[in-house]
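Reading a protein record of the kind used here takes little practice once its layout is understood. The reader may check this reading against the record printed directly beneath this paragraph.
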Amino acid sequence: MSPSISVRTGQLVDPVLTNLGRRYRPKGLIADIVCPKVPVTKETGKYPVWESRDFFATDVDPLVPDRAPKKEIDVSLSTEPYVCEEYGLKASVSRREKENTDDLIGLREGKQQAVQDQLNLHRELRVATMMRKTTNGGDLTLGATPSKNWNEAEATIESDVVTAIEAIEDATGMEPNAIIIPKHVARQIAKQEDIREIFKYTVDGRQLLGAGDAILPPEIWGLKTIIPGGRRATNKEGQANEFSRIWGDHVRVIYLNPSPNKETPSVAYTFTARDWETRTWSDDDPEVDYVSPSHIVDERVVAPDVGYEIASVLS
């Protein structure tokens, strides 16, 4: 793949840095899993919204007596808009930096990775924020707080999760298939005595002492476990480092479409008019080379009633 050039701006699409940006991800980010990308041809458009009742209704008797016409049913369909926006940042390599480095390629890739990291953290934060209940600033319609905080001995974790599952089933007729549990929450679940009692019959106890996704089994209560661990810096440049957890202390029970496309429901999609692309160009004053990853997307909760937030599960 050779670089393509824009005559108007003199910017090159760098295939090496573009591919680097596509494969490089800060550890613990899950936006691509829970908000999968769906390609679209235009930056603005509409996606279909089906009335779920139409697929589960039994109020019209399908019995057809001899010589009688079949009864007709209606299937409601509406549309909602998406609007893709460009997200991008740039970093520069000065002439003096180039002259004083022993690894120019590594220098450029390091700058690219730093920019890509920040863009991915911004994306993760957008997705985590929208996948909260509307009363908590997000777009999900269902949710509650736990009956007892999950880091307390009396916690009823299983009951809280089952309540979320049944709320989605009651609202939509669909069965959720995934649960998002932030890593520090997963550690607390693994330590809770009632949960340990369950796990000791279903999973090698040594797994509970592991790290990452091994903190919990890959599936619990019939739900695929998704364990984010992403953090972001909240301090200003030059101040002491402070980090916050992007997904907070909140658990989400959701439905994910195994074959993402805008015609069928899933809790959220990323409408993608242009996927990751890295451009490079040079300026003479100051003498610098720029590297700039960007993409044109709209992350959107498209099925707000197949997601349930169990908010603030830790004290």
User: Anything to note?
Assistant: The radius of gyration is 24 Å.
